[in-house]
């Protein structure tokens, strides 16, 4: 009697997991529009494709940059800023927080190692607040979707938030607060990259076959990652432009004053997906009436409070430090929005 092997049969859960891919959601957008509003199907598709093609040069440059940093082992440079006097560490951590080419899981053991080695919490917080807001690919994607003035302003806001957070934590600790920030449980490495504390960067990585393979892998991985999320983002932007009334957006986060900016900063907490999806969505919201200050508050507040960023903080530190992180992030988002609104 022949025995049927059921272990290799695909499970329904596997199919459902694949359907949750951004590619699937992107393809569903024109299908749903074709079913519910057939005349707008072609305009929605054309808008998304034109927007994606317009950002393509920024995507290519961003992918080459991040692959080069990974292949060269640039992470080890970041570890060197957490040495010396505390004030110097805070300033350098805020400045270079956005330059570290870490994935979300690499940040966790990196920060855990710093705290375990006795690095003061203040510079770590400065790095932690600045790091999720801006990095080379995010800067380029933001410039492609929202223009260089907005991208540069976001970079300044990230550094400013890092400085504010670092010196605020230093002040709190000088008053006796947050003296034991780290949780007791150890955090292991995820295995997705080199140890950021070891080795020196090799900038001429093309002379090393192993580093060339790293470059190729990172190039393909990040190209696919950016394309799938940006395709989804521009599909959502097309829906936003087509179906969301401008009066609704303008009523919530349009106009001047602190209230719309504060609303945008708080809305960014649940609505923010990642740094690559946000710029196209913000571009659509601004076309519908969102003020420039609210847009800045949304990307700053959402970046700090995104699920990977909050998970990294929660997994390592005690609740008081986590609360300080969220409070500083939202406060910094509102201040960034107010300043950007005044400047613009």
UniProtKB/TrEMBL annotation:
GO cellular component, as recorded: plasma membrane
Record-given protein name: Permease
Similarity-based family: Belongs to the UPF0718 family.
Residue ranges of the TM segments: 21-36, 48-69, 90-118, 138-169, 225-246, 258-283, 295-316, 322-343
Membrane topology (UniProt): Multi-pass membrane protein
Keywords, ordered alphabetically: Cell membrane, Membrane, Transmembrane, Transmembrane helix
Record-linked InterPro entries: DUF318, UPF0718_permease
Protein localization: Cell membrane
